UniProtKB/TrEMBL annotation:
InterPro entries for this protein: AAA+_ATPase, AAA_lid_BCS1, ATPase_AAA_core, BCS1_N, Mitochondrial_chaperone_BCS1, P-loop_NTPase
Gene Ontology molecular function: ATP binding; ATP hydrolysis activity
Name listed for the protein in its UniProt record: Mitochondrial chaperone BCS1
Family of the protein in this entry: Belongs to the AAA ATPase family. BCS1 subfamily.
Domain of life of the organism encoding this protein: Eukaryota
Amino acid sequence: MTAPPPSTPIASSILPLDALFNNPLFAGGIGLASLGAAAAVARRTVIRGASLLKRRLLIDVEISKQDPSFPWVLAYLSQPRPAGGFVQSRLTRMHHLSMNTASRSIHNKPLHAQFLLQPGYGKHVIRVQDAYIAVNREKHNTANMQTGEPHETVTFTTLYAYRHVFEDIFREAHQLAVQAREGKTTMYTVEHTEWKPFGEARKKRPIESVILDQGIKDRVVADVKDFLASQDWYVDRGIPYRRGYLLYGPPGSGKSSFIQALAGELDFGVSIIDLSQRGITDDKLALMLTKLPPRTILLLEDADSAFVNRRKMDADGYNGSTVTFSGLLNALDGVAAGEERIAFLTTNHIDRLDEALIRPGRVDMTVRIGEATRYQAAEMWNRFYGDIDVDGKGLERFLKRLEQLELIAGEGKHTKTKMSTSTAAIQGLFLFNKNNMDGAIEMAEGLIPRKYVPEVQQAMKVAA
Ligand SMILES: Nc1ncnc2c1ncn2[C@@H]1O[C@H](COP(=O)(O)OP(=O)(O)OP(=O)(O)O)[C@@H](O)[C@H]1O
Ligand SMILES: [Mg+2]
């Protein structure tokens, strides 16, 4: 009796597996599958690791279009590097650029255009010191409800270790913006419900170029400077730190020019609201005053239109879509009125204004900027012809002629003349006769205001 041979069933039970593993196709499959699984795990780890790394090692800063630094940052990115040349911009890899063209006319040459390449939408890489920074400019598919403009952001991303470069970037961007504004006066106007710079910042108008009657300019400038120097005084006494000025007088007497020059002198901007403009409502006025750009003079032009509207409202109960009297008063000293502010109001019609407006706290100083006086005519002459009229004979003749025309009083006299002219008209006459004194004197008759012309012609006919 021999023992049965080792049972094959066991072997055979192993066999299929063996056979399976020995099967190169199958083994390859397993290999591939496990490789795949390992890859998936690795991938997940990498992703997780990357996001962890990103969280731990990267830092980003997002700047939205609403932020005042947005244009500075774009300008910074467009800055050429010292070496100059097209690809010498800060952007080391530029594939999308956008164009920002500023055109202005200089020295009578037709148009001078300045092209500034800005990073376009998409991703860019810049290098600042030894840090590489990813810059992503994105337009979002949401929009500002008021303006309809799409939201936009610029995001800077870099290694956490290099976060200090952000400070340098923003400091430099700000410095560039300040430099660009140096010697300029920025004018802001209301666009929808935002204050927007109106055109490019203008070259500061020298205050000497605005010629007001003797002493007026000094008085106002001294008052504003004194106000600016006494913030603590107001704060200590719990008085809102505001001051209001009303400049009134005929058109073309230099009211707006003076305010612009004054802003330049103080290194302020000007935020302008034209009260006669349609679309400026009480609500909007109040809203705009709550977010006045810093370091600007508020200029409310044509203050009388608010009073005209009141009258209209009294008459028919309808107050149009423009500012009303109470809206203006509220804007000046109501709850919406900002804490710190210098406001200038201008009007051609002081008679239409209400006593209530000229109350301290609303308007603290009222100044008439009037028709051209003898003093102003002489000062303007000297500004235009001072260098060719060396002996002053031309000035003498010019003033004599204006006296004859009864446009200015005689020397040393303060009598009111029958007619008068504006400083704007004198400027016009001088501009027309640039470097031609005689021409200006001959054409002085043109300074007679149009409403008097028929009368003057009649008188001349009678005389003849
Ligand atoms: N006193 C002045 N000194 C220098 N330039 C003047 C003066 N008055 C007017 N001008 C010139 O005349 C033009 C019009 O002046 P401006 O707009 O300042 O007048 P305004 O008083 O504001 O007039 P309006 O009441 O119509 O607003 C400007 O080009 C300005 O340079
Ligand atoms: Mg004006």
